[in-house]
Model the fold of this input.
Amino acid sequence: MQSVVVGWELYERTHRPMTLGYVGLAQALPILLFALMAGHVADNFPRRRIAIIAQLVFCSCSLALCALSARSAPIWLFYVCLFCSASARAFGNPARGALLPQIVPLGMLGSAISWDTSLRRIAVVSGAALGGWALAVTRAPWAVYMINSALGAMSAMLLVPIAVRSAPAAARERVTWTTLVAGIHYIMRADLILATISLDLFAVLLGGATTLLPVYATDILHVGPDKLGWLRAAPSVGALVTALSLAHLPAFRRPGRVMLWNVAGFGVATVVFGLSRSLWLSLAALFLTGAFDMVSVVIRQTLIQTQTPDEMRGRVNAVNSVFISSSNELGGYESGLVAQLFSPVVSVVSGGIGAVLVVIGAAVAWPSLRRYDGAPRPAPWPKSNGEQ
Done:
């Protein structure tokens, strides 16, 4: 809901695509700045508690957006608020990602990730549609921010009673440069993890069409905020249908190859959306981007969880968050910049083509990704005295 309203409100006030690019930049910087510390915190403090605190901070930022919107405050204050909100996500996401293997058995992790992702997508679909609908009815963005804050507080409370299986007891690590970059060092040793998150980083960085949806809705498709809500929801509908299907299907026999083909499909669907002038074709193309992306998300998340030992999951998930979040947000900045310099269509179409080229490069650079068969093979990680 918040994503739909922030994009619409700021673009309505400025009518400059670069405004949307700065929204992405404001939310990408905290991920880059705090990810290493967030991973260390997730591996050394109770992960559920970190997730709850991060969610409450996020709610406070939504309340701040509510106040800024009601007073028509300067736009730079919106960017400050989004920066703080993204900072909370920077600490919350690694903790929540590393928490899942402590809730379900490892053998059921792939199915659990599919179900978890499905429920998140339901929230994204309903949130985008409800956000656009509420904005169209009330014409009051501050009201949508208020609703978002209340629902976020409920989410934090629902984390409290979750039963978490304790990890083996370990001494708390001191914060040193070695412990902060341990996640990066592990990923550099784990060829498969490096390949999958690099593929996601560059494909999403180039194929960030959703950032420009307010521009497409207003200037190209000529629809209102209610239709913008459905455009924002379309990728999540595709992802939801795919995630529910994957939860009932057996594991892929060659998940590495499946991931490569699906990221390529994501790029092609992005090109179709960029060239479309029909609302229904645009919805169909966005639906497919979500469907293709969801297959690669489930494969990537399952691979990361099964190829990483528990004592490293927080830091590896933190680095993964950098790749995912920064690719989404920096991709938004890149899309806004190219749209400002050339046109929205050039930005989206060139990004889709770039995503396909990234797949070809990844397939050549990492043969192990093509051969990946889904078997858990964590890379050996020697523990020093400071890493017990």
